[in-house]
Amino acid sequence: MFNHVMIGSNDIERSKNFYDAVLGTLGVGEPLRNKAGSVHTRLFYRHDGNSFCVLDS
Question: In what order do the strands lie in the sheet with 32-35?
Answer without folding.
Answer: 4-9, 50-56, 41-47, 32-35
